[in-house]
Amino acid sequence: MLTLEYDQSIHLQSQVNEQTNKYNIRHPRRNKMSSYVYYNPNGYNPGTGIYASSQIFTGNWENELEALNFTPKGKTTDEHVNAADVDKHFDGEDVRYLFNSFKSEDGLSTTTEIADFWEEENPANFSYTNSYYNSPKLAAIIDWFQCEKTRCRIFQQQPHTTLDIHTDFDNQRGNEHGETLRIFVQLNDMPGGAWFRFKTEDTEVSINLQKGQFLIFNPDYTGHGTENITDIPRNTFMLVVKRNEWIDNLVGDKNMKFIDINEVVANQNEVIAA
Ligand SMILES: [Fe+2]
User: Fold this and answer.
1) Is 200 exposed, middle or buried (0-12, 13-18, 19+ CB in 10 A)?
2) Domain span at residue 248?
3) What is the mean pLDDT of the segment spanning 40-49?
């Protein structure tokens, strides 16, 4: 029997049945038993929901970001999509988003698109670029995710720019190689706020991530957009990945967990030296 005190004069006597999650309570004034239920929500559904991580990468990778050259998004093989990219300011005269690829179809850091826009991305067709090999801390962040990856890019959103909430076609191109998810990793702190905005069947959220925190979602079914209201660019890893058990099991940490990337790289160097 558990006794809860909720003010100076009234005591509640209560009992929780762990089998049914029912919380039975007798209220002395009303003098009757009432039942309340502890609900147990399922949590993240990778097909339709959003995972805002309880894992956070820590470390100093600013020198690696500064050494990278960022270029505008490449053209796709579809004219309609290219026209939409101009509307979104990915392309044309007013470029508000720059990129650097860590994994691309031809292994170049300037290649951001795929050879056939309407074909499913096959992880076997993608190679790591010089940016990946020259940036051990940023590469360690990519490697931490134990899943198959296709395009891995840094998306650099310029100050005072917005990308409206929209959905994409990744899974509608095919699922022969598995369900496609996106992972966004925030790579710098954004004082004053830079937002990831989402719409699902039952949720609308605007999230200002901490440096090192990440999001996972399915880009076909989860509406996503970004807004940078600060005076500095925001660097975000955009990883295109295939869903697997490892991703499904990321959820459920009781506490926030911190992953020291400097330490991961130092340990790798020790193994190499040994
Ligand atoms: Fe998108």
Assistant:
1) middle
2) 50-273
3) 87
Angle at 66 between CA 130 and CA 166, to 5 degrees: 80
Percent of the chain whose pLDDT exceeds 90: 65
DSSP for 99-116, written as a single string: EEEEEESSS-TT--S-SS
Going from the Cα of 119 to the center of ligand 1, the distance in angstroms, rounded, reads 17
What is the dihedral sign for C-alpha 183, 162, 201, 39? positive
How many CB atoms sit inside 10 A of residue 1's CB? 6
Q: Which long-range contacts link 8-15 to residues 24+ away (Cβ below 8 Å)?
A: none
Residue 6 and residue 97 share a domain:
no
Ligand 1 centroid–CA 134 distance in Å is 27
pLDDT for 37 beyond 90: no
Whether residue 163 sits in one domain with residue 96: yes
Region 241-264: what's the mean pLDDT? 95
Confidence of residue 175 (pLDDT cuts 50, 70, 90): very high
CA of 222 to the centre of ligand 1 (A): 9
Same domain as 118, residue 201: yes
